[in-house]
Design brief:
352 residues; alpha+beta; 2 domains; eleven-stranded antiparallel beta sheet; five-stranded antiparallel beta sheet; 16 strands
Length: 352
């Protein structure tokens, strides 16, 4: 497949999104995709294994994903499961990538309205792809038969047009209950576009080692992903002990991650790594008084040391008397984020 055609005039992102939403994808068959390319004024290129549409856009050509070994069990007659169009490139650091995604997010939201679904793919994207190290946020305008997604790519945000069925079929089938079966988090709102949306079952961490890994991955990327998505997350953690299930931690994140600790008096929080407002003055804007006494300012995009933070939280929970991973509970308040109901699949912790 060879082609040289493609527009040399850069469209706005909003215009590109509208054009993608308006095209007839023809069931994502070879003939349908050829017609799609003609409708967009783009040309087929690349190879049979790595097909592209030559767009002429400075940000690069669009990648077609053929149905292969990892996709075939989720497809229903489609020959392709997505068309990914690079939007822009940014420096590789988390702050630059998050800012580029946020800019695209704001332009698309102004043009298309709030996405019906948002979240993070975590370390395992659709059809087992791995996401960028800085974070894997996505925003999705769900539709039928096709869905448009803004997704974090390897060098910057990408606009992805995909048949709705295969991607959702893949996601739903990951609810096997095995540890780390699903990563990231998934939020949906009350948009009518979400009618019929299915949600997979989660999984439960069976060891403190698993909690340390899952919590570390979550905290490591959280400021970058929250910044990119334009959301604020407030996540209390309760610890089930012989004396009940008191509040242990308050994880608060917008463009910076702050964690407060409410450990019992008999726990030496300082020796476990916690500081005070004097040591973490940035947390004064989150908690204005001395409650909680113990806290940490973990930083902005790319700055948190997720593994070390997770080790500190796990050690504190165990010192406070939480005897098993299922005793560390995410407060139900965390499930409501800016109008979205969020499921924290990647944590493997109960919510209540």
């Amino acid at each position: 497949m060879n082609g040289q055609r493609g527009s040399t005039t850069e469209q706005s992102l909003a215009d590109l999104a509208r054009r993608l939403l308006a095209v007839d994808t023809g069931g994502w068959t070879p003939d349908g995709v050829k017609a799609l390319a003609d409708e967009l004024g783009w040309a087929l290129g690349g190879t049979a294994d790595h097909p592209v549409l030559v767009t002429g856009r400075p940000s690069g050509d669009a990648r077609l994903r053929p149905v292969g070994t990892y996709e075939e069990r989720y497809a229903e007659g489609e020959s392709y499961v997505e068309l990914a169009v690079p939007v822009t490139s940014a420096a590789p650091d988390a702050a630059a990538q998050a800012a580029a995604f946020r800019a695209a997010n704001e332009e698309l939201t102004a043009a298309l309205g709030r996405p019906s679904v948002m979240g993070s793919h975590g370390d395992m994207g659709p059809f087992y792809d791995s996401g960028p190290l800085w974070g894997a946020p996505f925003m999705r305008w769900r539709g039928s038969p096709d869905t448009l997604e803004l997704r974090a790519g390897t060098s910057g945000p990408e606009l992805v047009l995909q048949p709705t069925g295969p991607a959702e079929n893949w996601f739903w089938r990951q609810g096997s209950g095995e540890e780390h079966a699903i990563s990231g988090f998934f939020g949906s709102n009350r948009d009518p576009a979400n009618a019929g949306l299915g949600f997979p079952g989660g999984w439960t961490a069976r060891s403190w080692q698993t909690v340390t890994r899952s919590l570390g991955d979550f905290l490591d990327a959280l400021p970058a992903e929250a910044t990119a998505l334009g959301i604020g997350i407030g996540m209390p953690f309760y610890g089930r002990t012989a004396g009940g299930a008191p509040l242990l931690f308050d994880v608060t994140c917008g463009d910076r991650l702050s964690i407060g600790c409410f450990a019992p008096d008999d726990v030496d929080a300082a020796s476990l790594g916690w500081g005070t407002v004097a040591e973490h003055p940035g947390t004064a804007s989150t908690w204005r008084d001395d409650d909680p006494v113990w806290r940490v300012d973990a930083g902005g995009p790319g700055e948190p040391k997720g593994r070390a933070l997770a080790e500190m939280l796990v050690a504190t929970a165990r010192a406070a008397g939480v005897s098993e991973p299922t005793g560390l509970i995410v407060g139900g308040e965390a499930e409501y984020v800016d109008g979205y109901h969020v499921r924290y699949y990647g944590l493997g912790l109960p919510t209540g």
